[in-house]
Specification:
3 domains, 304 residues, Cyclin A, domain 1, 50% helix, three-stranded antiparallel sheet, N-terminal domain of TfIIb, mainly alpha
Length: 304
Amino acid sequence: MSLSCPDHPYAHLVEDHRAGDVICPECGRVVGDRLVDVGTEWRSFSNERSGTDPSRVGAPENPLMGASDLSTSIAVGFGSSDGDQSLANAQRRSSNNSDRQMSQGMTHIREMSDRIHLTRAIQDRAALLFRQMLDGKTLRGKNIAAQVASCLYVACRQEGVPRTLKEIIAVAGCSSREVNKCVKLIIRSSENSFQLITSEDFMSRFCGNLDLPHPVQRAATHIARVAKELDLVAGRSPISIAAAAIYMASQASAYKKTAKEVGEITGAAEVTVKQTFRLLRPDAARLFPDNFAFDTPIDQLPAS
């Protein structure tokens, strides 16, 4: 029902939010009263006159926490049966436990992400993934640190900035066996397809951490790709292939890095870097790009 002033039906009414009244500006008549102000309350009741106080409004709703949904709660009153009471208690315990686990998981996600400098987008995706696994009970009974580590690992892959399992496990404080199991369960239960990790995914970060220039990085990427096409490194992990390719490219350039230095950055063992390099060494002439500026000729590359 629309309001209008009896004496001035075409006047544009004014709302007095402080008093909660609707007033005719022509004659001052109160046409309606007791309006409910649905806006945010910013008034401060503190002793300090510092203007508005946003803290009174409370924290924003978090869609990942169960308290923000419109789910039905079971309420029991006087005279309710024992069965009703038990059902209500069970629902309350389940809801509280789920929210508590989600809160713990998000705390772990923030802490681990800060330690290995993961972006907010990756943290948000990991939190969403953790919520989905929590709702589906996919990782039920698993160590929460392993659950979070696996969600971060998968989130990094989905965001196109993969991290190695060793990097994730180093900040998770749990065993690689636990994290591997959780990762497999997540991938198995997910409707999304996951692209396989390749050596090229890590080249930019590894070479940057080793202070290698772009031509060396480009050569290492080319070496790893051609080695896979020629099936020279069958059975080797993408990390091992990337490490060996970087080692080979650096040894042929003026920016030489030892197998130990490369292993420390990539997370591959020094012996693994050398073993994989020995698989590449006989075909080195076919692996380097045509325009590579050699500082050390191919025939003078180290034997391992």
